[in-house]
Amino acid sequence: MLLEVWRQPPLIALATMLLAACGTAPLAPPPEESPIFQRIDARVGIAYPAAARSATFTNPLLRIEVGKTSVARFERVFAAMFTQPAELPAWPPWRVAKNSVDGVIELERTDAELVLGNDANRPDVVSIAYRVCLYEPDGALIRCWSPSASLSHQRGVGECLDLRECLVPQTESVMRAAIARFLVEAESDSALRAWSARLPRPVRAP
Predict the structure, then answer these.
(1) Is residue 10 part of a domain?
(2) Domain coverage including residue 70
(3) What are the residues whose beta carbons fall under 8 Å from the beta carbon of 36, sequence distance 6 or more?
(4) pTM to 2 decimal places
(5) Confidence band of 118 (pLDDT split at 50, 70, 90)
(6) Residue 35 maps to a domain
């Protein structure tokens, strides 16, 4: 059986009606525990453009909304990174709007690729890459990160007759790995820490 694989470019339009007869495979919600990070005392605007939200794996047998789930996971990540995260509205764009924040962090892109294999000699390969950028309130770039992860899995004969049983856990594992890589890179990033050191500190009562 020939299965069509759609590759997701950076500026993808969400395919909503094409697979009306095909069920969406839900990914697991993000964990309740906050990731480990030395939280920065700052009010930071959070932005999720369409290119981050819309990445989707689709083929005639399943649909996995990678972008939507990625945003939900990054909401928890950013809440663990900054003491006052504030999601910014989609309109007007934050670069032209006046926001009372110390900086803006944007999940600019979710790039996702699924190469579907078979149960004989070709593995399923899931790859996810993110682009996350931190900006000054005026739009000046502080730092961008591009964490990614990939995982291949060779299905055995008769394994995962419902493809969701293999591909959903595989996608979740890749997503967790890429996000963990982002946290490790950001935690030790000199530009992020230099920006944090420049922030005005609130005067605390004695």
Answers:
(1) no
(2) 41-198
(3) 80, 183
(4) 0.78
(5) confident
(6) no
